[in-house]
Each structure stands twice: as C-alpha cells, then as structure tokens.
Amino acid sequence: MLDEESLGAPQPATSCKHPAAAATATAEQQTQRSVERMRDALTPVTVQSISGREITFSVTVTCTVREMKSKVSDAWHLPPDCQQMLLDCDILEDDESLDDVLHRSLSASGDAVTTRTLQLTLAVSDVDAHQRLAHGDPRICLNALRALLYSSQKGDDSVVKAVLERLEQLDTEDKHASRAAAVEVLCNVAERGDVRVLRCLAQRLNDHTWRADWFTRRASVVTLGTLAEEGLVEHGELFQRIMDSDPDWRVRLTALEALGAHVSPETATAIATRLQDEQWRVRHAALTILARVARRGDEHIVREVCRTLKVSDERLIPAAAKTLADIAPYGEAQAIEALVEVLNKPLIGEVRAAIVAAIAHLQQGGKDLPPLCSTLFQPEEEPEEEPLEDLFEELLEESLEGRLEVDRGRPRLPH
Questions:
Q1: Are residues 346 and 303 in the same domain?
Q2: Span 315-344, mean pLDDT?
C-alpha cells in the first residue's frame, strides 16, 4: 500500500519531443560545437582582386572584415577605405567577423562547417582612386595608383588617359615611387601596341628625362618590351642604346632581356656586344640569350663567346660552354680549343663537367677527334705496382748510403 508522501512526490518529466525536432536540435548543437572548435583555429582566406591577383592569409574567426582589409593593405598598399570585400555578390560590412561570414557562407551553401579556404572577391573603388590620383600628398597618390593597378581592367582607356596625364605632372616632381607605379599601371592596363604609351615612354628614355631614376627607367623598358608590336622595329635601336650607355646595370639587363624576347639576326649581333659588359650578370644573361637566338655557325658570335670563355670567372664558364655547344659548328676547332684551354685550369666539378659535356657534344660523341683533345676521351693507363719485396730491398740499399735508416726491419725517414 502506498503512503501519502509517495503519492504526492513529483515524478520525473519524460521527453515528448518530435523525432524531427530532436534531429534538428542535434544538428544545430553539432554545428555550434564545430564553430566553437574553430574559434581559436586559423582559417585560410583567399582574396582575389578583379584584375586576377590573389593573396592568401590565415586569421581566426574573430577577425573582422576591416582587419582583413588591413592585411590586404599591408601586402598591396591599398587603403582599406578604397576596398570592398564581397562574398559571392554580397558586400561585407567592416564590423562583420569571419565567424559571421562563415555562417553566411554556410547558410547559402548548406555545407558543414569546415576549415576550407574562404574565397572572397576584392573590389576597389575606381572613383576614389581617380580622385586621389591628383592629390598633393605623394603617399596618397601612390596608393591611388596601386588601387588602379588592382582594380582596372585591361584596355580601360579612361585609366590610361588619367595615368598619362599624371605622369606628365610627375616629371617635374621628385616622386620616384609614384612614377614607377604609374608606368606599371600603364603596362598592365594599356593594350598591346598603344601608340600613346609607347611614344610617351620612348620619348622620356630618349630625352633622359629620368636620368636620376633608374627604377622608372627599368619599368619603362619592361613596359616597352611588353606593349611593343612583334619585331621591335621602332624601339630596337632604343634598347640597343640603353644596353650600351645606361649607367645602371639593372636597366641594361632589362633592355637586354626585352630585346632577346624578339628573335632576329640583328638581335643576336646586338646582344653579343654585351659580352663585354662590366657587370657579370649582364654577360651571363647575354650568353643565355645567345644560346637561344644565335644561328649555329655564326663565326662572329662564336669568336666573341670563345673570348668570353677564356677571360671569364667560373660563374660564367658553364653558360659560355653551353652556348658554344649550341651555336658552334660540329667539330669547330676554335671552339674546342677554347674549351680545352679552360679545362686545363683548376675548376670545381660542376664547371668541369659542363665543359666536358660541351666538348663531347661538339665532337659528336668522340668521332673524328683531333689530336688536341683525343686524350680527353681515352682512359688513362694505370701504372704497374712494384712488388713490396723489391721496394723494401731498394730502401735497404739506400739506407747503406746514409739516406734512410732501418729500425727493426721498417724503413723510416731520418730525423
């Protein structure tokens, strides 16, 4: 029989949730736990600009959109105020955290929370960039140019026109970084063969307008080589003059590489003149380009490469040997003699191997070897070893003459 206390005691409540509701609650709890685990973990974020450039960095889910813009600004020097980050077609607010962005992405895709790389699109305000372009502060002007570099589409005529106008103003100002950035924008935005850009840069290089600014001169040479029509008929002489007379080796090297990208007999002859450049990096680049553009059997170029091979240091010998192997006629005595002469010097293994490979290539596997280098491909005869008994007897006879002493049956040098 039950007493009153047991009858009046409260009974534990039983769960009466619907199975579907219980499954939904479980899924939400799992998602919440996954987000909590990711809160302290680093999430990779890839930001791609409209012009196609990408940057990837890792941040925690508490990082805000404004802080991600600051990371982009540190890498690309784009002011955060000029940036707009988009997830698909939605603009992200500065105070949104990566946690909010992940939830928005998950609600749109329906995927589970993972550590996959989040893809964002970066849009840069062209209006703000154009307004800042004429600003008197050089830092603001430079940031505007960088913004145009990352936001402008190829062939945007308004950007090309605005940058050309600003470049004319920068000619009278001591702002080297802004000038170089303006030339880089022209290189990336202007169409190939744009006469306005080619004429503007060629005129300033010819007039030595930027004689004290090697960085802008080098950027201009790169732009001319990129935008000029095939063959460089109009600017080939300009590049040759820059290679010959520019005081900075980095500009000469850039002009050499730009000229070497356009193959022609005249190109090879002009590049061969740089084998006498005072900077070894320029000479090395000339050798590498000649191996690609020179005709096999060109006596003048073969002679110049042989001269370079004989007087160069070890940094250039492998490149010179390969160039001779590529352009000298098979069995050409002048080239082989030059290689053998260098081979007789004390060289490290890699350099010696490059010379031997070049000789073997020119000799077509060792056929019809001339007397000068036939010994290079013949195994050396090993000297016959003298029996130990005979050697000991000779040493013993010498000891009788006082030149060696014998102590306990073992020869040793006298004190």
A1: yes
A2: 91
